[in-house]
């Protein structure tokens, strides 16, 4: 049995980081938000880094979002609009403070 890749089209990878709100925050809410906006173009969302500022005690998360279209190669311009919408929605709906 030979391995067959799921897609021959290359992924586009963008990172997003933000300070978490002081009240409750759920990673699942962020994952849902990304999948709602990006739809089938989102292949994977991974928490890359969690950082706590030593003086302010604020916590920051950095996520890697992997975009891939199953039938064609995506351009960075196409993905930029989706990524920007994710950033704006995260600030508006989850109350995070963007670091982008």
Automatic annotation (TrEMBL):
Kindly give the SUPFAM superfamilies that the UniProt entry links to this protein: Anticodon-binding domain of PheRS (SSF54991)
Keyword Hydrolase on entry: no
Q: Which domain of life is it from?
A: Eukaryota
Which Gene Ontology cellular component annotation is one that this UniProt entry carries? mitochondrial matrix
Cite the FDX-ACB domain residue spans from the record. 7-99
Its family remark reads:
Belongs to the class-II aminoacyl-tRNA synthetase family.
**Protein name as catalogued:** phenylalanine--tRNA ligase
Q: Report the gene name.
A: Fars2_0
């Amino acid at each position: 049995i030979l391995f067959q890749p799921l897609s021959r089209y290359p992924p586009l990878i963008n990172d997003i980081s933000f300070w978490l709100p002081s009240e409750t925050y759920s990673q699942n809410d962020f994952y849902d938000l990304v999948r709602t906006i990006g739809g089938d173009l989102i292949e994977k969302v991974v928490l890359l880094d969690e950082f706590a500022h030593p003086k302010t005690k604020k916590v920051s998360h950095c996520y890697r979002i992997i975009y891939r279209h199953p039938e064609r190669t995506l351009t960075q311009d196409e993905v930029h609009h989706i990524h920007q919408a994710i950033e704006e929605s995260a600030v508006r709906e989850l109350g995070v403070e963007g670091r982008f």
